[in-house]
Prior knowledge:
There is one protein chain. The chain is an alpha+beta fold and 133 residues long. The chain has a single domain (2-124), classed as 3-Layer(aba) Sandwich (Chorismate lyase). The chain is 15% helix and 39% strand. The chain contains three helices and seven strands; from the N terminus they run βαββαββαββ. It has helices at 8-13, 63-69, 88-94, and strands spanning 2-4, 22-31, 34-44, 74-75, 79-84, 103-113, 116-124. Strands 1, 2, 3, 4, 5, 6 and 7 form a seven-stranded antiparallel sheet that branches. The termini are far apart.
Amino acid sequence: MKYAKPIQDEAVLLHLASYKNALIREVLLDGNYQPVVFAHSVLPRNSLRGAWRGLGKLGNKPLGATLFANPKVKRTPLSYKKLSSNHALYQHAAKYLTDKPLYLWARRSVFSLNCASIMVTEVFFPHIVTSKT
């Protein structure tokens, strides 16, 4: 985790001034010993108070477990996007891939609690399915 400026479209959705830093959390989720999802979360400073004050100190704990444990947390509908190689999130995620695909699919939503909001984007890696016949 580090403090950095969110991508422009993230700042707009979170109503952050373009010069404001937020806590950026990036993690890889593995399946069958290979990365399958690159998760990118944006946590504005004002969201790290009150009920969410511990989010900045999660370490390896899953963010989703914290978010879904509280029934008062509201989630916007998921939005989906096809990321091409010139998109910043494609570039962040593709660092973990040996073979770079033409595009990656991502989904995003904003979680809110007591007027504080955070954004979670998941970038899905292409997976290889092998079968024995």
